[in-house]
Structures are given as C-alpha cells and as structure tokens.
Amino acid sequence: MTSFADLKLSEPLLRALGEEGYTTPTPIQAGAIPHLLEGRDILGLAQTGTGKTAAFALPILHRLAQHRVPHTPKGPRVLVLAPTRELALQIDESFASYARHMRFSHAVIFGGVGQGRQVEAMRRGVDVLTAAPGRLLDLVNQGHIDLGSVEVLVLDEADRMLDMGFVRDIRRIVALLPQDRQTLLFSATMPRTISDLAASLLRDPATVEVTPPSTTVEKIRQAVMFVDDENKKQALLTLVQSPKVVRAIVFTLMKHEANKVAEFLCKQGIAAEAIHGNKSQGARERAMAGFRSGAVKVLVATDIAARGIDVDEVSHVFNYDLPNVPESYVHRIGRTARAGRDGWAVSLCNAEQRAWLRDIEKDIGKPLPVFMDHPFHSEAASASTMRPPVLGGGGRGRGGQQNGGHRGGQNAGGHHRGGGRPAGGHHDAHRGAHRSGQGQQRRSSGARSS
C-alpha cells in the first residue's frame, strides 16, 4: 500500500485527506484499515503519535457513508470510549475533520461540565458518540442515552482506561450494547489486563502490532539527571531556559506540585500553565490553546496529559517527577518527536524515585543515559542505582564512557552530542497507580491523531 487511494476509501474521505496534505498511511493505518473495512474486530497495538485515531475513524466513516440508516433517538451508531476529556475532544474533532464532505452527525460527552448541551446533542441520535465512561454511564442511567443501536464500539487508549480504574465501567457499558457489533480495541501497551479484556470483547480479531508495546520512539533522545528535591526547580529552570527548548511539557506526579512548578516558572519569566484534573474544563482548554499557539512555552501536567495531547511542535518533555507506573514513562515522552520530528526527554530523579527508575529501565529494556555535568548533580541520589552511570563528561564520567554522550552543562537543555541517542481525565498518576492492579505524520506520512 502506497497511498490512501489504495485503501479504497470513499471519495469524500480521500478529498478531505488530500486537503489535509495526507497521502501515505502510517503503518498502523495501512495494517488496520483493510481489516476494518471487511468488518473484522481488531486489536491494534502502537505507540502514541502513530495515527491510531485515523486508523479507526476513516474505515468507520467509510462504513457510515456506504450504509445510511435513520438515527435512533438518543442513540449513536458508533461509540468511541476514551479515558480523558482532552482525548475525547480530540477524537471528536478528528472525526469532524475527516467527515467534512459527508453528511455526518457527532457528539462528545465527558464530565466536569454541565450536561444540558450533551443531552440536547443526543436527543435525535448521532452517527458517532465519543465519550468518557463515567459521564456516559451517568446519562445512560438518567435515560438520556440509549446504547441499543450501536454498530461499532471503539476502545481507544484501553490500557490507560484500565490504569485509571475504568474496567468496571467499561464492562457495564459493553453489557448494554448489541452482541452483533464490530469491536475495535487500540492500546499503546499490552499488559495482562488488556489481553484479558481483548479476549472477552473481541471475536476472532485481527491483530496489528506496529512496534513492541513498551519500546520508546526512535527519535527521542533520553537522559536522566540525579537531583535532590531542593534543587529540582532550579535544575528545571536551567533546562527550559535553553534556546533549544521551543515548547515543552513538564510532568509532575501530584496536582499541587504542577501548580507550584508552573507558578515558579512564571515568576522566572517563563510562560507556563498547569493542567490537571482539578482544573475546570475552561481553564484546561485555555491552557491548551495557549500551548498550541506558542503563547505558553511550558505546559506543566499530571499524567492526565500523557495521552491524547496532540501538539506536533513539542521539542522537550521533562519529567519533574518520574512516574510510578513504568508504562506511563513511554506515554509521557511520546508527547515529543511527533510528526517525524526529533525530541528530547530528560528526567529528574531523586533518591526516593530510584526504584521507579529501575522499573522504567526494565520496562523499556535499557538503562537511561545519565547526564552528570550540571551543578545540581546529586551523588546521594545516584549512588544506589545498582548500575554505574552510562554517560558523563568533563572528566566526571564513569563506567568507561567518559566522552560517550551528553556533555556540557547546557546539553541537557537540548545540545546533547555524541552517542546518547537510544533506540527506541480526572485521575492523576499517583491515583491511577493504586487502582491499576487490576498519528498520522503530515504530508508524506499519513493522517495522525493520538
């Protein structure tokens, strides 16, 4: 397959893709779309930023265009479940963009806002409903939504939904759907919980796996800095002040820490906004609008933003706190190196988070390069990592790679040199971890979203 035309999508879809400058499908799209056009269930595994949204939206819209039927009042023909309101909005916008030349109705529902407009949007029924599970069940229980006419179910970022504790909600929703339906499950990782869920929901599915689920994007250069808590803010400030940092996302573990970090950066003259589950929907939308436009240089976020924030020009991701769920590391750093660009991911690690670092390295199958030549390096934090630092500089390097990688005090902000290039809602990470036990590149690369 060399073009979207080879996939035999309907003319209105091809016209919309052409207007967007999309010509060549990404691997997940080329692998998934033919199966979906045949009506098969699918298990799609791919990293974030590889075009999963278009991989399911395009064949769904083709199906709707080929088979027009009257809407069922209060009912959707297609139901897409997403873990966060940001991702739900993004998916809804992608459907609308691809369907610009079709007769098409859609709605998006999520919590944190009044339900009046959402109820009204569903009154006559819609082609595609994109929803967060909690608000969806609430409106179903109130009698405002009827799921009895759903033809296609999509679970996007399924692993994230399970991490956030939505597994019971998902099963309650599935119990309300017709058994004779097409089911699509897309995920960036494949833990046991996802394989179990797929086995219970999918019928003879086609599996499309683009990359190993826990590998990191090839173009992301990664490093870790060992820094004590009292020096983290200054270390972060030094990093974001680099002229190489065009637009950055900083991840914290706690909501109140995100607020503090954003306030600190603003006081230092860095345009920064915080985004997390305690922010109102309006505040979150304003923060994202400023970030996309470039008015906000740094977005400070909890893991609510680790999925579905689709901003191509993110040059750097900084982990102010390491995530305590290893899979979240891959999702976080996947916010950079999108649409074919290079990107940097630098993590600040204190002594208390060393065990999390080891879990992350085990998950991605390699040690993170250690950047040592900076004034905030903590020997205490790095002493018990159970491995020597793999990168150093200026005579301080250990482990036989003194000149092998990220050198110079300014390099962690974007001037790394040498061999340091590795292969590759409403709940925050610290809450999700306790409950977890349980897109297309533009121009020559394909339609990307999520």
Please give a handful of descriptors for the protein shown.
single chain, 450 residues, alpha/beta, Rossmann fold, 2 domains, seven-stranded parallel sheet, six-stranded parallel sheet, 16 helices, 13 strands, 34% helix, globular
Overview of this protein structure:
By secondary structure, this protein is an alpha/beta fold. The protein has 2 domains: 4-209, 3-Layer(aba) Sandwich (Rossmann fold); 220-423, P-loop containing nucleotide triphosphate hydrolases (Rossmann fold). 34% of the residues lie in helices and 14% in strands. The protein has helices at residues 11-20, 27-37, 52-66, 85-98, 116-121, 133-141, 158-163, 167-175, 192-201, 232-240, 255-267, 281-293, 326-333, 354-364, 379-382, 429-435, and strands spanning 42-45, 76-81, 106-109, 126-131, 152-155, 182-187, 206-209, 220-226, 248-251, 272-275, 298-301, 316-319, 343-349. The strands form 2 sheets. Strands 3-4-2-5-6-1-7 form a 7-stranded parallel sheet, with helices on both faces. Strands 8-13-12-9-11-10 form a 6-stranded parallel sheet, with helices on both faces. Helix 2 (27-37) packs parallel to helix 3 (52-66), helix 6 crosses helix 8 and helix 13 (326-333) packs across helix 14. The longest helix is centred in the first third of the chain and has 15 residues, at 52-66. The model is unreliable at 384-445 (pLDDT under 50). Residues 391-412 have a biased composition (Gly residues). GO terms for molecular function: helicase activity.
